[in-house]
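Forum: Protein Structure Q&A
Topic: Joint prediction for protein chains with partners

I've read a bunch of threads here and the consensus seems to be that you should model interacting components together rather than docking separate models afterwards. I'd like to see that in practice. Below is the full input, 193 residues plus whatever partners are listed. Could one of the regulars post the assembled result?
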Amino acid sequence: MNKKGRLFVVSAPSGAGKTTLCEEIIKRLPGVVRSVSMTTREKRPGEKNGKDYSFISVEEFKKRLKTKEFIEYAKVFGNYYGTPKKFVESNLNKNRDVVLTIDVQGAMQIRKNFKKGCIFIFILPPSIKHLRKRLEKRKTDSTKVINSRLKIAKKELTFLKYYDYEVINDDLKTAFEELKSIFIASRCQRDKN
Ligand code: ADP
Ligand code: 5GP
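Posted by a regular:
Agreed with the consensus. Here's the joint model:
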């Protein structure tokens, strides 16, 4: 039987906890891999090229865009981000589930082009106030950047209706258990098909 993995598209306003939660999923669930996006944004302290993102120049990004190397891409907070087609397709063909942690614009492109076999999950913070606190605690952005991220967060929340599941990340452990059960239930569904 030639089985294919599933694409899990996870979106959330910046600071809602999608990286923390998805990293835990990948650590704990065998057969799930995370796609490492390409971006033109500056590397933050502590980030590793090839692990957190592949950091490339705008010229390089545009070249790859021309040669259709992305399954989706978007400009977010003034920087380009894209999901590499080759990695995603080769892992799906090896029956691995692939997690994309991408913004709502990219998720809508996947919805349009890949609808079958995709699961769309939106991670929500308990409130905008919590979101501000988390972004401040993360210490990776200036107050100006945090304010603009919060403004965009409110806009992103209007896309919630296009997602299959929503997970509120209040207590981290509870949110993780919910997310894990969505992954497991979706895999069981696939195995039945
Ligand atoms: P995102 O990837 O969505 O931008 P992160 O995973 O980087 O968000 O999380 C933002 C910050 O919030 C990090 O410092 C993280 O440790 C913290 N965080 C994540 N989930 C929770 C939670 N449930 N409660 C409190 N802090 C959290
Ligand atoms: P950050 O720079 O804070 O890591 O991410 C900023 C935003 O870009 C987040 O909403 C994140 O999900 C999104 N993002 C990261 N990689 C991709 C990608 O490959 N495609 C799209 N469309 N968005 C991405």
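The chain has a mean pLDDT of 93.
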